[in-house]
Design a protein that fits this description.
Blueprint lengths: L2 H22 L3 E8 L3 E8 L9 E6 L4 E3 L8 E5 L5 E6 L5 E5 L4 E2 L1
Parallel strand pairs: 1-8
Antiparallel strand pairs: 1-2, 2-5, 3-4, 3-6, 6-7
Length: 109
Amino acid sequence: MTLMRLTRACGALLIGVGFSTVALAHNPMCECKEIPGEQIQCTGGFSDGSGAPGVTLDVIGYDETILVPGKLGQDSTLTFKKPSAEFYVLFDAGPGHVVEIDQADIQPQ
């Protein structure tokens, strides 16, 4: 391998490592809790501290039907009436940025 090819290969490797570090620092986070009035409030964001306004947050039944379609508001939260059917919450910020929260993991405030 010539010196020029080796230099290019090393440069490409360093660029790739840089991008992977950035990707790892931006993990999705979502928390849901029961609040008074038979309501559930979910808050979404990312591990770098950024919010997630406009990100899809759907409430899905165990039969895979969407019970409550939603998007996080400007404050990165969504509040909805607790469904009577068994459900889970799906925070979906795109490929590799998905969080599922089962109803059993949602605790009172």
